Amino acid sequence: MASGSSLPEEDLTCSVCFDIFKDPVVLKCSHSFCKTCLQRCWEQTGSRECPVCRRKSSEESPPCNRALKNLCEAFSKHRIQKPATGLESLCGLHGERLKLFCLNEEVPICIVCQTSEEHENHKLGPIQEAALKYKEELQTALKPLQEKLEAFKKKKQKCNNSAVLLKSQAVDTERQIRVEFEKLHKAQCKVADPEKLSGGRINVAEHLGNLKYRVWEKMMEIIQY
């Protein structure tokens, strides 16, 4: 709701120029328009009918809607006094607010652009409706991309978890191998001196071969395939 009036801005907007009413007049059908907007429509169509409901009007000069005029003046005064937010976009050619959207060229335009030759016979609409339409189209286009992004994040997390697990297993396996090698080393050191054993010399090749086999056997027990 706008301060200074009891109606929202949409109810204070002319359906012909899409701007705040200027000298609004009211028809028998209760629809109101800017006086100049209504006269221009009647001149273009050659018929005195309501631009909204197409009801014929018997009045050449419809009466002024004074209540609506007072509301519009109060609203305009408040808008002028209100500090500028810097969020409103203005037409680069005419300095007017961009309140319309040209559907043919898909560009926002002002009410002055509406009457220019560049946009003559073009289909126009309120910029709010166009913004809502494009927002819905953008959301529809983004939905499959968002789903793919979520799937990618899940796969990435799964790969990260697997990498952490593999690293942990590798560290644990290395630790176990070191422990077993330490045990084998200690066992080797405890072998008696060959000169003190009865029966002559030790078959070195045989013992070394057995040692290599035992080391290999231990490693096979530790490493799981």
From TrEMBL:
InterPro entries (UniProt xref): TRIM/RBCC, Znf-RING_euk, Znf_B-box, Znf_RING, Znf_RING/FYVE/PHD, Znf_RING_CS
UniProt keywords, alphabetically: Metal-binding, Zinc, Zinc-finger
Domain RING-type: 14-54
GO MF, one annotated term: zinc ion binding
Start and end residues of each B box-type domain: 90-127
One protein family per Pfam: zf-B_box
Protein name, entry field: Uncharacterized protein
